[in-house]
Amino acid sequence: MAVSGVADLAGRVLAGRYRLRAPIGTGASGRVYLADDVQLRRRVAVKVLHAALADDAGFLRRFRSEAQLAASLHHPNVMTVHDWGEDGVPFMVLELLEGGSLRAMLDHDVRLSPAQAAHVGREVCAALEYAHTRGLVHRDIKPANLLFDEHGIVRVADFGLARALAEASWTEPAGAVLGTARYASPEQAKGTPVDARSDLYALALVLVEAVTGRVPFVADTPIGTLAARTQRPLVAPPELGPLGAVVERAGRPDPAERYPDAATMGAALADAAAQLPVPGPLTLVGHAEVAADPHPTELGGLEPSAVYDQDSDTAVVAEVPPARARRRRGFPVANVVVTVLLALALAAAGIAVAAALDSPALVTAPDLVGRTQADAAALASEAGLLVEVVERRSADDPSGVVVDQRPGAGRWLHDGDAVELVVSRGPPPVEVPDVRERPALEAVAVLDEAGFVLAPAQTAYHETIPLGAVISQDPEGGTEAARDSVVALVISDGPAPVPVPPVAGLAFEQAAQAVTDAGLTPLREDVFSDAVEAGLVVGAEPAEGTEVERGSEVKVLVSKGPELLEVPDVVGSGVEEATETLEGRGFDVDVENYRPGRSVRAQDPQGGEMRPRGTTITLFL
Fold first, then answer.
1. Which of 98-102, 205-209, 344-348 has the highest mean pLDDT?
2. 362-426 carries CATH number 3.30.10.20
3. What fold does the segment set 429-492 form as a domain?
4. Would you say residue 437 has pLDDT above 80?
């Protein structure tokens, strides 16, 4: 596990709601904590990102849009994002999964069988298919981002976070880049635009590691790893069995030679799973248990003490966490000196506080940066302060968001003083690419590269734009919009289906013209009919009124008239045998002067004549 530069924040409460209890995971970009949601009284996981990212405007801009999009995803195999925000550091509130990650399993020398890997891979493909169809590419599929609940169901985590981190100017700790390179696709290595097929490549690497414990192509340096990946296709180890063919196709350097989408790869994994034994239960490696808090909604453990503030002329009583208890090792003279000095300081503080009672009340300036102007004004008003907008300037932050304040958060002001705000006009607009009539995957990649966020795609029928291509976009191509603004696409479902027209009773030429006029292809088929005159249409297949795809073939069934059968010659046969023979050929039988066991003397019609099925044959005994 890469060592994070994030300080241990256990005990801190974020956004006045999420109390961090203990770290349960660490990565290059941040640390994950077990936490209490004190409002809903439930356990959650909180991912706190590196503190340096809080000063990176480009990262925060992307983080806000990507976190909002990730929170809109709802799928059984996607980790739920409950909330997100910034409280000195950016953070995301996630569902708490007790089963741990695939990374933890591998670090504990737990390997998956090929059958288990195929099962996990299918669940990951289902999550990717759901996200990809909504224009969201993960970009960082790796074992640490595949987590399990207590039942062994996998969840894919960190949707959107990889792209936000990619735009950050902050440099990850030494060694962190290698962690990304281990699962990067060739197109990521080349710096070319990526699409959904990049996630499938990374998943193939993860499946190989899950079974063998080894990641393909890993060299001594990140550059060596990425170079090897762009030059050679993935060759599956023999341990994967039927799973090998799937990872080899997904692991080809050219994205065009991989599976076209996650649904197709999931189907291939299902075919491989059918050749493998039923997978056994996973050996989960969950998080260490943390003692339950009997009062999860109380922020206890804070004691008031005198704290000197450099911006104030007087000492102020503030709440600070209690110091950790220390083991007593005697009572040295230094402790006496410290005690005396502390007593003197407290006495001086008391005098200063008493002297300040007649002065206006002091209040702390709240942190208003990152909030909308309206929210900042409301928060300042609650603190007894006014706000004054002194400047509006272009910034990476959305329009109307506070980007600076004077004095800064935490400074002391008198009740009724004003806080000066600098408000963003929003980032400078950029031209929206025109992606109409392009394939959906290509359109998503182009807009993503231009810095726009995709709304969940809508679909509609279109007479001329082919299936899977873009019909329209909002905003339209060629117009200008802010980076990270949302672009909505309408994707073609192809031409609308058409109903099969009524053709029964028409001549074939008339029926064929009606089918052609409906946008369908007529195909003649002659059939016997006892009810429809020869040469006229009996009906159609599919039946009249059925909606079918434009251009489909429709069978036009043309009557040949009744089916004619040869009448058997039963003269000389016993009446019972003759009756059975005629009825077996599809005729009805009428017997004159019937007597059991007597022979047939004559019949009408005669044997050898052609008659329609169901014709009555009269027997004379």
1. 205-209
2. yes
3. Trypsin Inhibitor V; Chain A (3.30.10)
4. yes
Nearest to 101 by CA among 210, 251, 236, 215: 210
Cα separation, 4 vs 7, in Å, equals 8
Specify the DSSP element, H or E, that contains 526: strand 521-527
What would the pLDDT profile of 107-162 be if each residue is shown by its tens digit? Answer: 999 999 999 999 999 999 999 999 898 878 888 899 999 999 988 999 999 886 76
3-state secondary structure 193-220: CCCHHHHHHHHHHHHHHHHHCCCCCCCC
Tokens of 599: 């022979």
Please, what sign has the CA dihedral across residues 441, 442, 446, 449?
A: positive
* Active-site hit among 36, 37, 56, 140: 140
Average pLDDT, the chain: 81
* pLDDT at residue 436 is higher than 90: yes
Q: Cα(81)–Cα(73) distance, rounded to whole angstroms?
A: 8
What does CATH list as the number for 47-274?
1.10.510.10
For 275, other C-beta atoms within 10 Å of its C-beta total 12
DSSP state of 247: H
Rounded Cα distance between 554 and 544, Å, is: 10
Q: What tokens appear for 289 in the block? A: 């248990």
pLDDT, tens digit (0-9, with 9 covering 90-100), for 43-84: 999 999 887 777 777 777 777 777 777 788 889 999 999 998
Give the right CATH number for 564-620 from 3.30.10.20, 1.10.287.130, 3.30.428.10, 3.40.50.1910.
3.30.10.20
Active site residue 311: no
Q: 429-492 and 564-620: same fold?
A: yes
pTM: 0.49
Nearest to 105 by CA among 190, 206, 236, 253: 206
| Paired sense of beta strands 303-307 and 610-612, if any | unpaired
Packed helices 243-250 and 196-212: angle between N→C axes, nearest 10 degrees: 140
Give the three-state DSSP class for 384: coil
The mean pLDDT value for 25-29 works out to: 72
CATH architecture assigned to 498-559: 2-Layer Sandwich (3.30)
CB 419 within 8 A of CB 412: no
Closest C-alpha to 92, from 166, 180, 159: 159
Domain residue ranges in the chain:
47-274, 362-426, 429-492, 498-559, 564-620
Please say whether the beta carbons of 47 and 91 come within 8 A.
yes
- pLDDT of 311 > 70? The answer is no
Lookup: tokens for 264 = 């197709």
C-alpha of 437 from chain center: 25
Among 193-207, 317-331, 358-372, name the most confident range.
193-207
The string of pLDDT tens digits covering residues 449-507 is: 888 888 888 999 998 999 999 999 999 999 988 777 899 999 999 889 999 999 999 99
β-pairing, 412-414 vs 18-26, is unpaired
> Residue 18 carries which side chain, given as an amino acid letter?
Y
The residue written with tokens 């997978």 in the block is 279
- Out of 323-332, 565-574, 600-609, least confident range: 323-332
Query: Cβ(271)–Cβ(256) under 8 Å?
Result: no
Query: CA–CA separation, 511 vs 513, rounded Å?
Result: 5
**Which DSSP symbol is given to 320?**
E
Q: Identify the CA nearest to 80 among candidates 192, 22, 159.
A: 159
95: its two tokens? 């569902």
